[in-house]
Design goal:
- The complex is a heterodimer.
- Chain A is of the alpha/beta class.
- Chain A has helices at about 20, 50-65, 75-95, 105-120, 140-150, 165-170, 195-205, 225-230, 255-260, 295-310, 310-330, 355-365, 380-385, 400-415; strands spanning about 30, 35, 40, 100-105, 130, 155, 180-185, 210-215, 230-235, 245-250, 270, 275-280, 335-340, 345-350, 370, 370-375, 390-395.
- Chain A has two domains: about 20-30 and about 310-415, Aspartate Aminotransferase, domain 1, CATH 3.90.1150.10; about 50-310, Aspartate Aminotransferase, domain 2, CATH 3.40.640.10.
- Helices cover about 40% and strands about 15% of the residues of chain A.
- In chain A, strand 13 and strand 14 (about 345-350) form a beta hairpin.
- In chain A, helix 11 runs parallel beside helix 14 (about 400-415) and helix 12 (about 355-365) packs across helix 14 (about 400-415).
- In chain B, helix 2 (about 10-15) crosses helix 3 and helix 4 packs antiparallel against helix 5 (about 125-140).
- Chain B has five helices and four strands; from the N terminus they run H-H-E-E-E-H-H-H-E.
- Chain B has one domain (about 5-150): Sufe protein. Chain: A (Alpha-Beta Complex).
- In chain B, strand 1 and strand 2 (about 40-50) form a beta hairpin.
- The longest helix of chain B has 16 residues, at about 85-100.
- In chain B, strands 3-2-1-4 form a four-stranded mixed β-sheet, covered by helices on one side.
- Chain B is globular and about 45 Å long.
- Classes of the chains: A alpha/beta, B alpha+beta.
- The interface of A and B includes residues 387 and 419 of A.
Chain lengths: ~425, ~150
């Protein structure tokens, strides 16, 4: 069996200069096992451009101090840089005000914050939380915990064989008992882009607030939370070319005012006596303890950088990779792509006849190609397709058609090894 | 550099394709489940113990080539052995995969199991090779619980 890897003409849809983008990522010039690194695990985490690395280093080298306690020059500088990061993230999401941006450790903590607040103030036995069958564990388990505490029920919208969430199935499950809907914007396991704007309109027509898990959307699509109309939007810095350990919860001011604090401690208070504590104003009410200052700064720089590259151009470039990759991989005998939604981000989840995804992962690794294999923290999605695991190539703004070719060639090698 | 062929040796690929003792065992006296949540490997191990001997052993399940071949060769290796002998093999196999790097892993006394010596160079795959053995260990220890490599 000869490899199906003829050189394809580099015909991108736009004037997007992928080589210039690549040059900004130091790690992309390294090799792995003597082969050039082909990094196709972007849904897991993305690499960092020089500007982000420099911003974090500059903070530690030149401005390191604790924030919001500014009696000295350094503390003022650090506070400015950190709050500047919040403003940049607010601008990136299209939020009305930086007050609506709570820094968290990531999407997971952002969702936990809302789920814990809802469990404490708004959920009772018999209430329902609506999620979809596409969710990552981080948009399932916090709601299960909330349900356990309150006796509320988790209701799941089933997905189709293509990996889509049908609008009518979603609508059908909005009942007078639904207290909140929590939906992913883009599925991490399959790449499906959900019609979240439609979901939000349907939910709001019944006065149901909506949280959107945007971890997989923010690095790939132009975003405007006000236009979407969501009540909450959760993102992770490290999936947006920013540092790990930092993320954000966007919440409308009205909702964030209503929700109780998530954790208690320093920085989230206005005054403390042993009798009574008054909480700080938004967004600091939700930020207990010394923040991930370097993370917040780096996150802001990453958000600005990503906007500078332009999400529309990024989306077009990645769509080209998706279409090209889908064609190349589909041509490989025995390979099946899992998740064939009409609206898809650049994620290709696949299985190979008679070869376990873990074996695919190991062989690709030795070719310098990083993909993820396993259940992708979305076991219900795997169960839906009757699979223990898949291999997943997920693309970022720096990937190229040549890398897709390398992937296809390496998958052919897997077939050779397993004869 | 370690070659892929050190990991995927012919013997391993053969056992992956046609695993030995891959069947249900209605007259098993012990049953244990093995689970590797990270890669979704699941294994059901049947053992029929007569006196202090493993009279018969079989398995079913889904998993990667390494875990399937390991289960297959393990069942060949421990069939007919005493419980103490199986325990000794378990220890030797474990050393082969995870022993300190200065100890030469020559697989002495392991017979066919020595084909897994290449796995130690692939740390992410050690759990795949040991899943069946951990599952057997719960039976040897009489725990009969679900073995997990996590």
């Amino acid at each position: 069996m000869s490899a199906v890897t003829k050189a394809a003409p580099e015909a991108h849809a736009s004037a997007y200069d992928v080589e210039r983008v690549r040059a900004e990522f130091p790690i992309l010039s390294r090799s792995v096992y003597g082969k050039p690194l082909v990094y196709l695990d972007n849904a897991n985490t993305t690499q960092k451009p020089r500007v982000v690395i420099d911003a974090v280093r500059r903070y530690y080298e030149e401005e390191n101090a604790n924030i919001h306690r500014g009696t000295h020059w350094l503390s003022e500088k650090a506070t400015e840089a950190y709050e500047g990061g919040r403003e940049k993230v607010a601008r990136f999401l299209g939020a009305t005000s930086p007050k609506e941006i709570v820094f968290t450790r990531g999407t997971t903590e952002a969702i936990n914050l809302v789920a814990a607040g809802f469990a404490r103030e708004y959920l009772q036995a018999g209430d329902e939380i609506l999620i979809t069958g596409l969710e990552h564990h981080s948009n399932i388990v916090p709601w299960q915990l909330a349900c356990e505490r309150t006796g509320a029920k988790l209701v799941v919208v089933p997905i189709t064989d293509e990996g889509e969430v049908p609008v009518d199935e979603f609508e059908k499950r909005l009942t007078p008992r639904t207290k909140l809907a929590a939906v992913s914007h883009v599925s991490n396991a399959l790449g499906t882009v959900n019609p979240v704007k439609t979901f939000i309109a349907l939910a709001h027509a019944r006065k149901v607030p909506v949280l959107v898990d945007g971890a997989q959307a923010a690095p790939h699509l132009p975003l405007d939370v006000v236009d979407l109309g969501c009540d909450f939007y959760a993102i992770s810095g490290h999936k947006m070319y920013g540092p790990t350990g930092i993320g954000a919860l966007y919440g409308t001011e009205a909702w964030l005012e209503k929700l109780p604090p998530y954790q208690g401690g320093g920085d989230m208070i206005s005054s403390v006596t042993f009798e009574k504590t008054t909480y700080n104003v938004l967004p600091w009410k939700f930020e207990a303890g010394t923040a991930n200052i370097a993370g917040g700064i780096g996150f802001g720089v990453a958000a600005d950088w990503l906007s500078g590259v332009g999400l529309a151009a990024v989306a077009a470039h990645e769509h080209d990779l998706l279409v090209y990759g889908t064609r190349k991989l589909s041509a490989i005998p025995g390979l099946t792509i899992v998740g064939r939604a009409k609206e898809k981000a650049a994620v290709i989840s696949f299985v190979l006849e008679n070869v376990h995804p873990h074996d695919i992962g190991t062989i690709l690794d030795r070719e310098g190609i990083a993909i993820r294999t396993g259940h992708h923290c979305a076991q219900p999605v795997m169960d839906r397709f009757g699979l223990p695991a898949t291999a997943r190539a997920s693309f970022g703004l720096y990937n190229t058609r040549a890398e897709v070719d390398a992937l296809a060639a390496a998958v052919e090698k897997v077939r050779e090894v397993f004869g | 550099m370690t070659d892929l062929r050190d990991l995927y040796q012919e013997v391993i690929l053969d056992h992956n394709k046609s695993p030995h003792n891959y069947r249900e065992m209605p007259d098993a006296t012990r049953l244990a489940l093995g689970n590797n949540p990270l890669c979704g490997d699941k294994l059901k191990l049947y053992v029929r113990i007569e006196g202090d001997r493993i009279a018969d052993v079989a398995f079913q399940g889904s998993g990667c080539a390494i875990s399937k071949a390991s289960a297959s060769i393990m069942t060949d290796s421990v069939k007919g052995k005493s419980l103490a002998e199986a325990e000794t093999l378990y220890g030797k196999f474990h050393d082969l995969l995870t022993g300190p790097p200065d100890v030469k892993a020559d697989g002495a006394g392991l017979g066919k199991l020595a084909v897994f010596s290449g796995v130690r160079e692939f740390p992410a795959r050690v759990k795949c090779a040991t899943l069946a053995w951990h599952t057997l260990e719960t039976i040897l220890k009489g725990q009969e619980a679900i073995a997990s490599t996590e």
